[in-house]
Amino acid sequence: MSITTTAHLNFRGDAREALEFYHSVFGGEITVNTYGDFGMPKGLPDADKVVWGQVAAADGFRVMAYDVPGPAGAAITSASDTRRENGMTLTREPFFLSVRGETVEEVGVLWQKLAAGATVVEAYGPAQWAPAFGMLTDRFGITWILDVAARYADG
Question: How many domains does one find in the chain?
Fold first, then answer.
């Protein structure tokens, strides 16, 4: 079994700039996908924002990031109020912890354990970009993203 844990940083419009900076510092490969890349009409305000980005270096450095959609603080009342709405994650949290595994089954076992006493943001199951994805806030207030690596995700 192979599991990785990656910091997933949440920004308010400057995720691309941050990823480019981390890339300049750590090197490696940079990936940036916008909401528009995932189907949001190009004329909408969030279409050019980062829906998912990553810097991954051969030495093991890895960081993921995205831009929280909408105006800063829109309809979010507390840091623990993370939710999925219309395929987007809305939050005030500065980071999530991301755990990625190789199979639906191995990640599913971790999901079941982390879900004890947790608030499920999005149930673990198939996603457009991965064989399985789920998001929850554990009983300690930490929001976790668990997913299964798509065959193309790590090159």
Answer: 1
